[in-house]
What does this fold into?
Amino acid sequence: MKTVISSERPSRKLVLICMLLVLSFALSACATKRMIAQEVKPAITAKADKAVLVIVRSTSFGWGNIVDNYLDGKMIGQTYGKVFFITDVKPGVHYVISHADNTDTARLNFETGKIYILQQGIYPGYNITSSFSPMTADQFKKEVQEADYVVYDAQRPGSDMSPKDLKEAKDSFDKELKEGKHKEIVQYKGYRKVK
It folds into this structure.
């Protein structure tokens, strides 16, 4: 039997598969981790003139899917499976925003010397969706045992939100608040100490 080698061009199906592979690699490259794992988990305390925000992703669901987090549109960190990070916040009303397949927003009135802990819930979506909820100090103490502590890599900063996206996130939250949603978030007062 004679083997015939075809000199025809690759099929459209093969070209399409190759293009999809290249696109998926390009998209995964866009979702770069901008966090650095730390060996030691810090004691969480607020500075005399600031508040502290802790964002905790305590589930391993969607482990590799990165969620970008912003404070008033400025990137402050990312989460992926079972991590938490800390950021200092000036006192006053601020919007904490996450971006996954959806955009979720929490508006908090940060008080000097207080610690605010937000759990980032993760749910199925095209990749994943996320939502914030207040976490008690006791829940945090339990969940932090299995979570890694990460810090934002200022040497490789991510992009901040566009002014348009920030306005849409704020407007959406304020509209939903008028509809009776988010009461648990806006009433959250934080803690003086987390031991």
